[in-house]
Design goal:
7-stranded mixed sheet; globular; mainly beta; 0% helix; 8-stranded antiparallel sheet
Length: 144
């Protein structure tokens, strides 16, 4: 389910594809990490991505061992794996219409946030008036 109050193929820089939205965060750098009951990635003071439910960070390939998955659980303050995202540049940001979020960073790290049964697993705001939210049980709400 996708809720679009302004149903256009382009929402304040976000580009709609058949199964996903490409979010306009390319080349923005993670300038702050904030932690309370959620993990917030501040991107160059122009956008924020808030992760409120368990997620997985996949560390870039290492010599001979391949990618290493690390569980991120902000509600339990288990976010040490995400600390290496500080200063990283976003290469791609994709919000799938089923509610999944995937962020790819320089250096090869990826952050995957699946939808949650009861809560909004993640949200993104900016640049400008763009807002995207993963709905409980999956799906997206995107508006400008």
């Amino acid at each position: 389910m996708v809720y679009l109050p302004f149903s256009t193929p382009r929402q304040a820089g976000a580009i709609e594809r058949p199964d996903r939205w490409s979010l306009p965060y390319q080349n923005l750098r993670v300038s702050q990490l904030r932690l309370d009951a959620q993990l917030t990635l501040v991107l160059d003071e122009t956008a924020e991505i808030v992760v409120g439910c368990p997620a997985t960070m996949i560390r870039g390939p290492t010599l001979g061992f391949g990618p290493t998955p690390v569980r991120i659980a902000p509600h339990r303050q288990q976010v040490s794996g995400a600390l290496e995202l500080f200063g990283a540049r976003v290469l791609a940001a994709v919000a799938f219409k089923d509610g999944r979020l995937r962020l790819l960073f320089d250096g090869g790290n990826q952050l995957h946030v699946p939808p949650d049964t009861w809560y909004e697993a993640w949200s993104a705001t900016g640049p400008g008036s763009l807002r995207a939210v993963c709905l409980p049980r999956g799906g997206l709400a995107i508006w400008a």
